[in-house]
Design goal:
8 strands, Immunoglobulin-like, alpha+beta
C-alpha cells in the first residue's frame, strides 16, 4: 500500500507541475519504487560427481566457480569415513577429495559466503 501511495503522490505531483512531467520522470519513479532484484549467485562444481575404487582412492580435484565471479569457497564432507576434502594449496576454489577405502556414498558440500551450496556426489566401490 505504501508503494501505491508514493506512486500516486508522484503522479499527482507530475500532473500539478505547470511544465508537465518529463518523459523520464515516471520510469525513474517506478525504478525507485520497484527495484529490479539481483539474481542469487549460482555455484557450479566440476566435476559434479566422483567415483573411487579400492585401487584408486584419489585424490581427485574439484573446482568451484560462481556466476558472479566469486572464487572463495569452503568444502566439507557429509561422511569423513568415506571421503575427505581439503583445499588445494593456496587456492580458495580448488579442493582435493580422497577416499578412505570404505565402500559407500557421501557428499562434498561446497559453499560460498552467501550460504549457497552445491553437493558433489562421491561414491566408493
Amino acid at each position: 500500500m505504501k508503494r501505491i501511495a508514493i506512486l500516486l503522490a508522484g503522479l499527482a505531483t507530475c500532473a500539478a507541475l505547470s511544465t508537465g512531467c518529463a518523459s523520464t520522470s515516471l520510469p525513474n519513479l517506478f525504478s525507485h519504487l520497484f527495484p529490479t532484484p539481483k539474481p542469487s549467485p549460482i555455484i557450479s562444481v566440476v566435476p559434479p560427481s566422483l567415483t573411487f575404487t579400492a585401487a584408486n582412492k584419489g585424490p581427485s580435484t574439484i573446482t568451484a566457480s560462481e556466476n558472479n565471479g566469486n572464487t572463495s569457497f569452503s568444502a566439507t564432507t557429509t561422511d569423513a569415513t568415506i571421503a575427505n576434502v581439503t583445499p588445494q594449496g593456496g587456492t580458495t576454489n580448488v579442493f582435493n577429495v580422497t577416499a578412505t577405502g570404505k565402500t559407500g556414498a557421501c557428499k562434498i558440500q561446497v559453499s560460498d559466503g552467501a550460504g549457497q551450496t552445491f553437493n558433489v556426489q562421491v561414491t566408493t566401490n
